[in-house]
Amino acid sequence: MGGTMTAEPTTSWPVPPPDGYTVDDLLTLPDLPPHTELIDGSLVFVSPQRSFHTLAMYLLESGLRSTVPETLRVRREMTVVIDRRQGPEPDLCVVRAAAVATGEETFYRAQDTVLAVEVVSPDSERRDRDRKPQLYAQAGVRHFWLVERARDGGRPVVYVYELEPATATYVPTGIHHDRLKLTVPFDIDIDLTAIDRL
């Protein structure tokens, strides 16, 4: 009886340039979703976060802020520019205070980043565990933490890595279950079981 109707597209996706996107595109394209990352010249959109991800970020951010020295600053979900085709956004990072000039920054440079932290999400496991640490290491970010959810109980487990400068790769220096106590990049003592009370 009636004709078929086709739905008009409601979203217009930008067509990527032939050589991929650049950091300039990431920083200037209008209407990108919040927390869009640039990985290997491709724009990566972030899925809505789960409760564990948010709580783990809050716990670690609070712990870092409580002991961070005057020469460093803790930042949450800020782009770290590595080169013209790489602009990942770690969940947390610690940057040199000198890089925080105005409070209006929309990104930090890799050379000003002392620590990058990734809390693994189901939609980004490979990026969080493989590609992003590789990028941070090659850019010379000295410290990296990978945060996973423990299978029993759901508390954070923090895998700590330090840069091996000769190979530009990370080497593991510890796995922390209930307490994250470190002396580098500064004195840190975080009760990971506190997530139970958040």
In short:
With 198 residues, the chain is of the alpha+beta class. Helix content is 19%, strand content 31%.
Explain what you see:
By secondary structure, the chain is α+β, with helices and mostly antiparallel strands. The protein has helices at residues 23-28, 51-67, 125-138; strands at 37-39, 42-44, 72-76, 79-81, 92-96, 107-109, 113-119, 143-149, 156-164, 169-176, 179-182, 188-191. It is 19% helix and 31% strand. Strand 9 and strand 10 form a beta hairpin.
Estimate the mean pLDDT confidence: 93
Radius of gyration: 19 Å
Quaternary organisation: single chain
- For the report, how would you describe the main beta sheet? 6 strands, mixed
Strand order within the widest sheet?
3-5-7-8-9-10
- Helices and strands, in order, run as HEEHEEEEEHEEEEE
Helix content: 10-25%
- The helix/strand class is alpha+beta
Estimate the strand proportion: 25-35%
DSSP summary, beta strand count = 12
What characteristic shape results from the CA principal axes? globular
Low-pLDDT regions: none
Distance between the termini: 58 Å
> What is the number of helical segments per DSSP (H or I, 4+ residues)?
3
